[in-house]
Amino acid sequence: MRMSRPRAQRPTSAERVLSVLTSAHSMTVVSDGASAEVRRLDGTGVIGRIHLHDPVPPSAPGPAGRIPVRLEFTDVAPTAVRDRVRARVTVTGLLAVPYDPGAESTCMEFGQAVVEDADGRAYVTLDELQRSAPDPLACCEAGLLTHLVDDHPELVPLLLRLVTPGGGLTRALPLALDRYGLTLRLEYPRTHADVRLPFATPVAGADQAGPQIHALLAKARRLSHRNRLPA
Fold first, then answer.
1. Which of 14, 31, 64, 186 qualifies as a cystine partner to 69, CB 3.0-4.6 A?
2. Which helix (H) or strand (E) holds 17?
3. Percentage of residues of the chain with pLDDT beyond 70
């Protein structure tokens, strides 16, 4: 199924990992043969609880018997799209002491970070994470998208004027929002496809997202109404 859309900028893999770590509501910590669910991460984010450090060279002195640990995150779309899991992020490393869910902070020797999504799997180094920043919309994305769907449902069909969805479209919903643009999920009877609507310029903060979305809507209004969802 061919989509008519320009090639748009996207967050890098490192930015995606940091965005998930920053906005995550929960994570699964697998260490020392046990699995623990850590919830209520809002406000502090994982980076505030897990401090990532450079790997220690094998020849360097350090604590003996370091404990392997794996942090698992699931990035779930805030809107009720089909197949709501957008990505899975895994961060592995070593701990000097057993993981304590009640600890305010934990030091972790970084191993690797992996992000898996519809585009495949990407590995991210600590250097890439340290040179990157989370998306400025990461922590407010859910509120912005649910506001669009719940309070302005008439605007989503309007945005369809900016794409060529093909026949058989049954539903369209916003899937994701980042500094570079808005992503719609187009659903068909047996499949779905995602299409990005790029902003004219990347946003630097939440206060710039509204004007950029309004610019997309203004552009859509200037086009003929060619795309319709079934009644």
1. 31
2. helix 13-23
3. 86
Q: Sheet of 171-178: strands edge to edge?
A: 171-178, 181-187, 192-198
What are all long-range contacts of 111-118, with beta carbons under 8 Å and residues at least 24 apart? 111/55, 113/17, 113/89, 114/89, 114/90, 115/13, 115/16, 115/17, 115/20, 115/87, 115/88, 115/89, 116/87, 116/88, 116/89, 116/90, 117/16, 117/75, 117/86, 117/87, 117/88, 118/86, 118/194
Which domains can be identified in the chain, with CATH numbers? 13-130 (no CATH), 141-221 (3.20.180.10)
Convert the pLDDT of each residue in 186-197 to its tens digit: 999 999 999 999
Among 163, 148, 77, 80, which residue's Cα sits nearest to residue 117?
Answer: 77
pLDDT (0 to 100) of residue 3: 41
Q: How far apart are CA 49 and CA 105, in angstroms?
A: 4
Residues 89, 87: Cα–Cα separation, whole Å: 7
Per-residue confidence (pLDDT) for residue 34, from 0 to 100: 86
Per-residue pLDDT tens over the stretch 56-86: 766 555 555 789 999 999 999 999 999 999 9
Q: For residue 151, count CB atoms less than 10 angstroms from its CB and return exposed for 0-12, middle for 13-18, buried for 19 or more.
A: exposed
